[in-house]
Amino acid sequence: MELLDNLALGFSTAFLVQNVLYCFVGVLLGTAVGVLPGIGPTATVAMLLPITFSFEPVTALIMLAGIYYGAQYGGSTTAILINLPGESSAAVTALDGHAMARQGRAGPALAAAAIGSFIAGTVATVVLAVAAPPLADIALKFGPAEYFSLVLLGLIVSIALARGSALKALAMIALGIMFGTVGQDIYTGTPRFVFDQRELYGGIDFVSVAVGMFGVAEILRNLENEHTRTATVGKVKNLWPTAEDRRRIVGPILRGTGLGAALGVLPGGGHVLASFTSYAVEKRISKRKQEFGRGAIEGVAGPESANNAAAQTSFIPLLTLGLPAHPVMALMIGAFIVHGITPGPNVITDEPALFWGLIASMWIGNVLLVLLNLPLIGMWVRMLRIPYAVLFPMIILFAAIGTYSLSFNAFDVYAIAFFGLLGYILIKCGCEPAPLLLGFVLGPLLEENLRRALIISRGDATVFLTRPISASLLVVAVVALVIAVLPAISKRREEVFTEDDA
Amino acid sequence: MRTTSRRRAATLAAIGVLSLIAACSDGGGGGASGGDAGSAYPDQNITFIVPFSAGGPTDTVTRMLADPMAKQLKGKIVVQNVEGAGGTVGAGEVARAEPDGYTVLMHHIGMSTAPALYADLGYKPLEDFEMVGLVTEVPMTIVARKDFPPATMQELVSYVKDNAGKVTLANAGIGAASHLCGLLFQNAVGVKLQEVPYEGTGPALTDLVGGQVDFMCDQTTNTSGQITAGKVKAYAVTTPERVKSLPDLPTTAESGLSNLQVGVWHGLYVPKGTPPEVVQKLTEALKVALADQAVIDQMAKLGAAPVAADQATPEAHRAKLEEQLATWAKVIADAGVKAG
Question: What residues does the DUF112 domain cover (chain A) (predicted)?
Fold first, then answer.
């Protein structure tokens, strides 16, 4: 019953008035920065770090963690309403979420995202409490070779499913991978495709690509003529999911939660794969494959759950090993240090109230997020009634401000315009932006880990087959490929990343 | 694209909160008014440019100092992260900024390595900036995966000489402190090892703890938690004296590698042509901030300490930069490293 004692300690800490209050402040701020396109949690956490110096350490960490998972939560709102994803995970939500919004079903889409996130958050909190240390040990077994095989599997699962226009989808993935190579090569320092622009040394920012390809391209398409305009919706069918909707989202939420919780533990980019993989799986097993990309509620519920579960379990390497999975976690390490706690494997034993209090607060934070977001759905949906002459300039304005604030770099704003135009041209050619984004996100991970694995093995490529985890992942990848190639199955043509034809 | 949210920066909301913090924290706020250029300074917000990502060690040090310096200057300081190309994007921006003291650069050891690493830098560290003063120097540690055979620094040296073709040396990317320290190590020992670059310290340390790579050299900020928990093996600290947080760890000099001395030093810069009385005000504010007990305590938690008062001056800063530029020009040229 040690677990119950620990949880009791955690909840007694997390339920202190100031901790609940700052948990609320954290998730509220997180939701706000998540909703604004292009604006993210890293800087918010960085800027709020100094005011937490005077807090109790556990209070400070509860608030900072709240900003992080609150932002994951808020990011889906803009993706669904106006097709502006601010994170790679939200790009997946935008596919079916925005299609639902265009059909007047923004309410159910937002509700599915909120409910899925809550369930995922709750389950992931339990996973954290029960199995954090053993999971962290498994995560450490993932070296460059394993990550390469994992990312390859992720890409193949997606390609294998994108059968309807496989050639175009492949071309888009390849183009995305190429955009991903822009910038300084981390192994040799060689600048690639930077055209002597120092601003491009750090690569193209994901937000510029996503905001351009999705949001701006969508606006351009809408401006063509009155008849094809779909961004604003006059009629809202219903605010809440119907009984049918509720039945349809149960499976995706549970599967997404499982996938996300597992992938989130891997510090080397597992959380990036969570929502993409969940979408591919849902589409694969759905009986209504044709609806995917055209407003399937499963395509919102699954990836959103996966994303939120991964956001939560990505705290496992941080809390049990003191190793950050991404920039926000690196900031949290800074917060530990400033509060005189040495981040590392000793935190659980040395600071049990902090460890368990933080975990308990995540569940409280998830409850607060649902209470905060469900009543807001009605308000968000009304936003779609804003006339396009007002809405479109506002979207462009917010996208430009948000993107500029990434690093005060005008280049990122030019990039939105560039990718907006490119996205429009691609839509006209019948190509979809989603596979491009997938290539853009996963390409650099694939290259980085491939080269690192080969550097460490001194060029011996068998390393991918001699390491058991890597070999198993590659076997699964081959199976996925074979299934896709089998003619009997290929008759059921399916498209993982299809959007409405332009 | 490197990582999806790597270059996340200021949000409107957060800027609002930040100004709120600034407003709350400097009770005596509000700019002084009247008088000529020098004595009126500052009568508007001062921007501190950090050429690295929010939340990194340099950013943390800057935000620590911003508050007490603003109080002393009776003005407001806004911290802005202008990242890219090993800090050269932010530095270049400050080099070209109006020399009025309202744009200030916080940069680390990278200021002295950039001319050797980058062919076409667009600015000259000694000629395009005025130095305000040195800030701190963060010690580095040599650490290895916990089942790496050598037990001491001496054993490590002979082990890497005997197994030069097998050993892997991790670092956090071209031009990172861990990369520079690794170059110095190879120089000092006289071997050429297989380097394994990572995208930042976090992933490098993760693979070290996971046993995927053999050893690396990194700042105490990042390594001391893993060292005390026994998740990595530590050999030495690269400063002349032992560090307080790791009293059992010998120095490189004690271990017989006296030519392996490196620390991540930080300094404040303003564009060339900034009025001397403005630079002087900034230097004074820096000295006061570095003597602030809260700053000392926070730096101690990072395993660092403010520099001595006589180092927080333009003269000492210039001397340090000149010496470091010469050192790194040779080390980097010998290693044949180029960043573009």
Answer: 21-438
